[in-house]
Amino acid sequence: MKDARCSHVQTDTGDECVNKGKAAAFLTSLALLIVMMVGSINMTAFADEEPNIEVNAPPHIVFMGDSIATGFGLEGYSAEDKSKCASYANLLTAVFDSELPEAAGFSSDNIAKDGLTSKKMLANLREGLYDKELKHADAIVISIGGNDLLKPLLNIASGENSFSEVVDKLFSLGETLDKNLDDYSENLENIMAEIYARNSSSDLSLFVQTLYDPLEGNSLTALADMAKEKIDRLNEIIKAEADPLGYEVVDIAKAFEGENVQLTNIEDMDIHPNAAGHSRIAKTLQPIIESHIYTYYDPEAAAADEKVKDNDGDNGFPVGAAAAVTASAAAVGVFAAVITARRKTR
Q1: Cα–Cα separations (whole angstroms), residue 191 to 59, 124, 297, 315
Q2: How far apart are the C-alpha atoms of 278 and 88, rounded to whole Å?
Q3: What is the DSSP letter of 210?
Q4: Element at 187 (helix H, strand E)
Q5: What are the b/e assignments for 225-255, b being 16+ CB within 10 Å?
Q6: Under a CB-based contact definition with an 8 Å cutoff, are residues 170 and 163 in contact?
Q7: How far apart are CA 326 and CA 256, in angstroms?
Q8: Phi and psi at residue 66, in whole multiples of 5°?
Q9: Is 342 exposed, middle or buried (0-12, 13-18, 19+ CB in 10 A)?
Q10: Tens of pLDDT along 71-126?
Q11: What domains are defined for the chain?
């Protein structure tokens, strides 16, 4: 007599109970689920990701900006060849080159230019003058703003002006510098946008230096006070825009504070850092740059990684995935055997 709890259906082999059909359907569904799981494992476990090596020194670094970055005024400096002086760019280049393995393919570019203002830097970016150097840069160090402020101030201080004439010129100069600062804020925003648009690195880090005060302690108190006021405002802009624009501030102003006379050539009416000043800038920049993670592609590591994959299992299956498939197949076999045994006892 047929089981009263199930409906009666007709098959090629005879009458079967619906619950047996459900068991077979479940077996089929389980097998399909396993196939899907294996497919998922194949998509994730066998993804061919490049073995990038993580380091704290940037494999490709770019220095850009004004004459502070070029090394102007240092022994051995030349506008045609900026690599022969002890500028902070050259000091850091030597350090990072020594820290990185040959496989990293270290490179350093100094595209700074004497006399550059933020307005001119932006124009150069838009004209594509820096595209080649910026494309693969991992770290970009920027010094810009000094010529927006210091050049006009220094022109007054270095001229044959009496104290009263300096004071008279400061009133009109203050308005000019305030306009320059308003423009600087807008230029800085656009500069960052242009740099990011031209870079293809997945781990780019941008660093913007604050401006030191070379007129600190100048005997012309009115001039020194104005310099401090405007430079402080410039540095406030740099700090305020850091998070919104995606760069890290390197506070050179703080590093020079109280020692501007010793770290610059101001006694010769030259606002640029001397050798000691460049050394101080390099020492300030280095730990901040090295606090970031950079990567480079190592072909030898890639080959070794591929060899490991080949040895992990047949047809590209790693041992873990193969074991999972074997275990799942065994489970299906056991379940099928149980179903078959039950059928034979009915």
Answers
A1: 23, 10, 29, 50
A2: 5
A3: P
A4: helix 163-198
A5: ebbeebbebbbebbeebbeebebebbbbbeb
A6: no
A7: 68
A8: -110, -160
A9: exposed
A10: 999 999 999 999 999 999 999 999 999 999 999 999 999 999 999 999 999 999 99
A11: 1-37 (no CATH), 52-297 (3.40.50.1110)
Amino acid (1-letter code) at residue 184: Y
Cα dist from 298 to 10, 46, 289, whole Å:
66, 19, 22
Give me the mean pLDDT over the 280-286 stretch. Answer: 98
* pLDDT average, residue stretch 252-257: 98
Strand order in the sheet with 60-65: 107-110, 60-65, 139-143, 205-209, 248-250
**Residue in the structure block whose two tokens are 């199930």:** 6
Amino acid identity, residue 133? E
Q: What is the biggest distance separating any 2 CA atoms in the chain, rounded to whole angstroms?
A: 124
Q: At what angle do helices 163-198 and 221-240 cross, to 10 degrees?
A: 20
Residue 1 has pLDDT above 50, yes or no: no
Residue 41 has pLDDT above 90, yes or no: no
Determine contact, residues 62/131, Cβ cutoff 8 Å.
Answer: no
What confidence score (pLDDT) does residue 144 get? 98
Answer yes or no: are the C-beta atoms of 226 and 248 closer than 8 Å.
no
Neighbours of 307 (CB within 10 A): 10
Identity of the residue numbered 124: N
User: Do 96 and 137 meet the contact criterion of CB atoms below 8 Å apart?
Assistant: no
Question: pTM of the predicted model, to two decimals?
Answer: 0.74
pLDDT at 269: 84
Q: How many CB atoms lie within 10 A of CB 119?
A: 18
